[in-house]
């Protein structure tokens, strides 16, 4: 037989091709191979190949199990993919022989061997055919032990559609800058997955969604460098806040978070910085939500085109919103008690979120009610001030005296025992504050203790005040200070105790009962000398007779710790902690106060006194500004005044502020 093809055109009259083709027909019909090659070099399936292909197709589509019939009952098989059960060996068989003469009929009580035999072109054992059919059916994967059920797969596919991958937007990364790519992923509103690191030059804006896992962004703005990007719920066990004027970039907020801050107090003053001019409170809150920090929003800057009510309504339900501020430093700016009351009440009507206030008692008037006493969160911000003389330690000590008075005044007037200190971390060229970094750091490291782990920091960015020359963002010393403040654990709680008392009918009267409650009583069962004499908290008003609580002198209505005779001493159980101060006014109804005010300590309830500080006073009134400490913090405060001449009635008065601190 010729085996070499001629490549003659079809049809060919060549005997050589006729003989070649006869051989190929024999190969097509009888060969057990799956293909043969024609005289043009092209491969074709043999009958065996076609049969194998058919079997593969049928396997892919599954078999049809003939229901209710077996080799024992007898059956009729009509198609090659129908299978018949043989009870003798618990297996299914399919007929691979010819159907050219019609259906394959299986008589009752048959076996595969008795009805055609077993082998190629006969019956083939396909014992798993039923399972194949079930697996091929909808939900068939559920039958496989350990395999994901189709419902789980579908659920996973559904969940996967809620995610977006930053790297899917890599075509938008131009010249290595991934700003547009990341913003495009965040703009979808879907949960974001990133791998990083990504170089970013611009501002990143989220839609408030979560970020799965964590990755690194290298931000060139302000030379931030590598920033860990992740979403996690903030730990609010302790308040760790950062005042922010205009910044809203997600990278900046993530940087602040990574320092250890859990809350930003935002002024919303975006116009203060050209780089942040496109900022809005919505962008701040969304980025805070993505970063995993909370935000207290200032209401003074507001938002163009809407009033305060609409502003509150717009943002009150945002999950990143922790609370509001009505005014920034209302007392220091001269915003009246009535104006504060009106605005706070307006905010409370529209939201249940807490309202915060920040201020410090800088002035000499420690009696007047200059802030309302029902703010939910109270901050005190007595910063270091510019001082022209003194050593560094003397300047820091003077700052701390001022800080104790300011902090104590905020605590006493707000009726809040948990006033949060605001650490100064900024320098100024003039006006308030100072440019002395070491003085700022020295005072801040002590003042932060008053919060026992809670604090706020002023300021991240100070673009709104042109005298501010640096803040935390641009000063490594301040950044290090705040990192340290976020990490310190306080094993022993620092205490701050404050009392504001006394006054007159011109400014106001502060309650005396807080002092009365702290007075030590004489031991009635002893004749030993008790040092508490000629003193008690009283109010004296002009009346028709002279007594301890009335005077015939016209125009008097004064309250405070009253003293009579030439020497008077009040014994209290107020603890003299590491530092104690008395600040206020000492005046008299008759004559003058020429003499001495002394602060003493007693550890036995007023039977022994140790002098800890004294101030000479002259004239009809005098400012009392005294700070003391003691080596024995078991001592309790006693206040003594002496005068050259005085009445047998309470006619000398001290009114003001007592603050005792462990810091």
Bin the helical content: 10-25%
Major sheet size, sense and barrel closure? 8 strands, parallel, barrel
Strand content: 25-35%
Structural class: alpha/beta
Tell me, briefly, the overall form: elongated
First-to-last CA distance: 113 Å
- What is the CA-based Rg, rounded? 45 Å
Number of helices: 13
Mean pLDDT: 92
Strand order of the largest sheet: 15-16-17-18-19-20-21-23
Which parts are unreliable, with pLDDT below 50 for 5 consecutive residues or more?
none
Query: What is the β-strand count?
Result: 36
Structural notes for this entry:
There is one protein chain. This protein is an alpha/beta fold and 663 residues long. 23% of the residues lie in helices and 29% in strands. The chain is built from 13 helices and 36 strands. An eight-stranded parallel barrel has the order 15-16-17-18-19-20-21-23, surrounded by six helices. The protein is elongated, with a radius of gyration of 45 Å. The N and C termini lie far apart (113 Å).
Briefly summarize what is shown.
The chain has 663 residues and is α/β, with parallel strands linked by helices. Helix content is 23%, strand content 29%.
Features:
29% strand, 8-stranded parallel beta barrel, 23% helix, single chain, 663 residues, alpha/beta
């Amino acid at each position: 037989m010729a085996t070499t093809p001629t490549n003659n055109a079809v049809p060919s009259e060549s005997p050589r091709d006729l003989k070649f083709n006869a051989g190929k027909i024999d190969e097509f019909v009888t060969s057990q191979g799956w293909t043969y090659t024609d005289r043009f070099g092209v491969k074709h399936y043999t009958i065996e190949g076609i049969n194998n292909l058919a079997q593969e197709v049928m396997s892919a589509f599954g078999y049809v199990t003939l229901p209710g019939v077996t080799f024992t009952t007898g059956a009729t098989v009509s198609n090659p993919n129908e299978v018949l059960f043989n009870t003798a060996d618990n297996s299914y068989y399919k007929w691979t022989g010819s159907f050219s003469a019609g259906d394959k009929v299986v008589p009752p009580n048959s076996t595969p061997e008795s009805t055609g035999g077993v082998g190629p072109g006969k019956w083939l054992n396909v014992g798993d055919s039923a399972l194949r059919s079930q697996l091929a059916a909808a939900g068939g994967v559920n039958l496989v032990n350990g395999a994901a059920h189709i419902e789980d797969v579908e659920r996973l596919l559904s969940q996967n559609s809620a995610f977006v991958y930053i790297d899917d937007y890599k075509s938008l990364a131009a010249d290595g800058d991934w700003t547009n790519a990341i913003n495009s992923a965040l703009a979808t509103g879907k949960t974001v997955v990133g791998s990083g690191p990504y170089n970013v030059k611009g501002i990143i804006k989220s839609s408030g969604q979560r970020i799965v896992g964590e990755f690194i962004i290298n931000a060139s703005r302000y030379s931030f460098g590598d920033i860990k990007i992740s979403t996690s719920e903030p730990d609010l066990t302790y308040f760790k806040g950062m005042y922010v004027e205009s910044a809203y970039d997600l990278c900046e907020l993530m940087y602040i978070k990574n320092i250890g801050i859990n809350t930003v107090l935002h002024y919303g003053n975006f116009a203060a910085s050209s780089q942040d001019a496109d900022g809005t409170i919505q962008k701040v809150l969304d980025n805070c939500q993505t970063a995993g920090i909370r935000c207290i929003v200032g209401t003074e800057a507001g938002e163009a085109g809407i009033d305060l009510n609409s502003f509150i309504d717009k943002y009150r339900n945002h999950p990143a919103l922790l609370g509001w501020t009505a005014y920034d430093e209302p007392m220091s700016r001269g915003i009246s008690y009535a104006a504060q009351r009106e605005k706070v009440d307006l905010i409370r009507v529209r939201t249940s979120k807490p309202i915060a206030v920040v201020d410090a008692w800088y002035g000499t008037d420690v009696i007047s009610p200059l802030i309302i006493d029902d703010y939910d969160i109270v901050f005190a911000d007595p910063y270091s001030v510019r001082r022209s003389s003194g050593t560094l330690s003397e300047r820091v000590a003077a700052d701390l005296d001022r800080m104790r008075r300011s902090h104590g005044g905020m605590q006493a007037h707000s009726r809040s025992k948990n006033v949060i200190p605001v650490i100064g971390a900024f320098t100024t060229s003039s006006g308030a504050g100072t440019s002395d970094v070491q003085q700022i750091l020295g005072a801040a490291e002590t003042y932060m203790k008053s919060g026992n782990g809670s604090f706020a920091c002023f300021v991240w960015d100070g673009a709104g005040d042109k005298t501010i020359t640096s803040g935390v963002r641009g000063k490594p010393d301040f950044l290090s200070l705040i990192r340290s403040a976020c990490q310190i654990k306080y094993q022993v709680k620092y205490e701050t105790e404050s009392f504001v008392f006394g006054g007159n009918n011109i400014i106001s009267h502060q309650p005396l009962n807080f002092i009365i409650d702290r007075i030590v009583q004489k031991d009635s069962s002893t004749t030993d000398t008790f040092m508490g004499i000629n003193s008690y908290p009283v109010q004296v008003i002009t009346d028709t007779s002279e007594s301890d609580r009335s005077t015939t002198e016209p125009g008097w209505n004064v309250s405070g710790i009253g003293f009579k005779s030439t020497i008077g001493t009040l014994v209290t159980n107020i603890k003299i902690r590491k530092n104690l101060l008395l600040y206020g006014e000492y005046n008299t109804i008759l004559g003058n106060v020429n003499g001495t005010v002394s602060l003493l300590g007693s550890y036995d309830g007023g039977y022994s006194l140790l002098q800890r500080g004294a101030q000479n006073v002259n004239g009809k009134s005098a400012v009392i500004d005294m700070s003391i400490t003691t080596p024995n913090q078991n001592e309790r405060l006693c206040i003594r005044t002496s005068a050259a001449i005085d009445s047998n009635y309470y006619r000398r008065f001290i009114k003001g502020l007592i603050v005792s601190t462990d810091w």
